[in-house]
Amino acid sequence: MQNVTEQPSAKAMPLLKRAKDNFGSLVTLIVLAALPFVVALYDGQSLSSLLANEAGSSKFVQGFVIEILILGIFALSYDLIFGITGMLSFGHAMFFAVGAYLTGIMIKSFGWSLWATLGLVLAAGVLQALLFGIVLPRVKGITFALVTLGMASVFYIVIQAREFGEYTGADVGLQGVIAPDFLNPSTQRLRFYFIVVALTVLIYLLYKRFVTSPTGRVCVAIRENEGRARMLGYNTFYFKLAALTLSSITAALAGALHTLHQPIVTPNVAAMSFTVSALLMILIGGVGTLNGALVGAAVLRLLQFGLSKYFSESASFISGAIYVAIVLFVPYGIVGTWRLKRFERQKGWENLLKLMGVGKRKE
Amino acid sequence: MDNILEVHDIHTNIRQYHILQGVTVSVPRGSITALLGRNGAGKTTTLKSILGLTPPSQGKVIFDGRELRGMRSFDIAALGIGFVPEHRAIFRDLSVAENLKIAERRKGDLARKQEMIFTLFPDLKRLIHLPGTHLSGGQQQMLAIARALVPDNRVLLIDEPSEGLAPVIIEHMIAAIRQLSADSTVLLVEQNFIVASQLAESYVIIEEGRSVKDGKMADLVNDPQTIQRYLGAA
Q: I need a surface site. Which of A111, B7, B148, B232 has the fewest CB within 10 A?
């Protein structure tokens, strides 16, 4: 009997089919790759000037997109634990802040190389996931959210403490972190831009692979009903810990990129408001959709930028109203709603083609 | 007859409530046993106590000679006890194929069982790539039972399989449960006495958290007084 329940493996899947499945990612990648050149062309900037990272609209846009993508990676990591696995954490900002502060401190105060620093950041990512993992079997739901908030709050207080001010910059934040020459966002912006684009695409594809893997499907099952997943014989703790670890490493990496890109790391990146912004990004994009996290990051950052430019004083009020409107009127988020309507759109197209006499006839 | 599952005088508390106050059930190997009783008698809690979801505070649960009390629910499931909860508890965000695949305990379980599953529930083959949300109530119940058939379970605990289903679907469900009992033992909770009497060979009646009567189903069917007294049906 033909095995109808097996999905075709990645190897067996024809290249064209894989390209079709990842059409959106491919288009986004092409757009992002072309963006600096298109903006430079529009601005009348020469190619040599663009490659020499001279000031201009293209350089500004690159910096802006880097910010969006770093936020997007952070939101993606939150979508994995909240949107996919169903763990509501209020301490997610700590994952990002640990990466950001460690990168800054090791490079600035201890003169570590970038690679050694990134190694430490990844190790710290695993450690903080294990720290959250200690409470995983004992608490869930809102209690888990509050415990993680407590842990993140301790970290938020510690990085602002005067005793560590020499390293963390206390409540002012960490200033003057100089990125290595080959990755300096001032002199090598275009290179930094392409590295961040490539990392975002890689992380997104890795997440997509994780979510569609058997482990990822168990995570989705846990989100829906953990008890049922346990009754199938799954020790759900390990699956939640796996999601938490991947998420923590990714968020810490986003934090490291943030420090390399920005000249300053403020304690705000460890505050609860930063976790809320991750939540907001995935609510705008669509909870549990993965690419919605990136869309949400773009919408959030563009809104912040546009509103502060045109409504400087009332920008926060207007952005708040817009977020409320999005959550109320697009409850599944932009990507979530798009996916929900896809079936209706397909039906609509089929009917239209049938009416025009060019539709496929079903035997 | 040799019993694969034995529950001895279990007591279970849920918060401050003493729900089970002495339930004893013996499930003979290779048979269908029905847990009967009125709403709120403690039938579902008995199943959950066996599975460790509401762990009993007293008594013994012996599965194939092994004490289950104190074990974690996923370890109990891994011993070969499948559970089909009430309310068609499938994973609605996963497709039919994924719902079946996730139930594999060993690689290849589904490939070995899919022919049997699709013979029992042909609808599922047709709907294989559809998400659980798109299935009707009957199809969801079929999927919930099919999912318990994927691994090599030695005992299936099925909670209210006919609840809220149309008569024609119930007929189909009865045929499916009868067929699957050829390979494994079934402990069935069923409110509908007609369905239970068509399926089970033996019964245990639970009333107010206590097992009050047990025996052969054939004897109970011919005992309208007991049926009226404990089940409220004639």
A: A111
